[in-house]
Amino acid sequence: IEYFKDTDLLITPGNREDLILAAVSGQVSGISDEYGIKGIILTGGVMPDKTVMKFVEKSNIPVLLVESHTYETAQKVNNLMVKIRPEDTEKIKEAENLIQEHVDIERILERLKKLKK
After folding, report:
1. 72 and 28 within one domain
2. Are residues 62 and 76 in the same domain?
3. Which of 36, 90, 111, 112 could form a disulfide with 32 if both were Cys (CB 3.0 to 4.6 A apart)?
């Protein structure tokens, strides 16, 4: 657990339930100030067991499922460079569309409300 920092993104196969549970345990147990993560990418197109996913849901940590393998996914994340300038109107429109399609805004707002309390 001490390896997980509050700024980390966990990239792991969906069948590594031990890692997934360890990663979300800080959030679920309430010690997320010391141990926790910001997100999980499950690789290989494999979902963890339903019971494990209940813990993940309880943690409110965002999860993304991808078909690619762990190494390939980590490379893509590492090489990711996102730049949108104010004059890039097409990129801005595309980003807005992607956010509307794939981001649960209500869930984010709920989490922000909890942080303010």
Report:
1. yes
2. yes
3. 36
Quick check: 84 pLDDT over 60? yes
Q: At which residue do the structure tokens 């109107």 appear? A: 89
**If phi over 0 gives left and psi between -120 and 50 gives alpha, with beta otherwise, what is residue 60?**
left
Whole-prediction pTM value?
0.65
Helix (H) / strand (E) containing 110? helix 105-116
- Asked if residues 13 and 44 have their Cβ atoms less than 8 Å apart, the reply is yes
CA distance 22 to 33: 15
Q: pLDDT value at position 27? A: 72
Task: Please state the domain count of the chain.
Answer: 2
- Cross-sheet strand order for the sheet of 63-65: 9-13, 39-43, 63-65
In the block, residue with structure tokens 């097409």: 90
Residue 70 lies in domain: 1-80
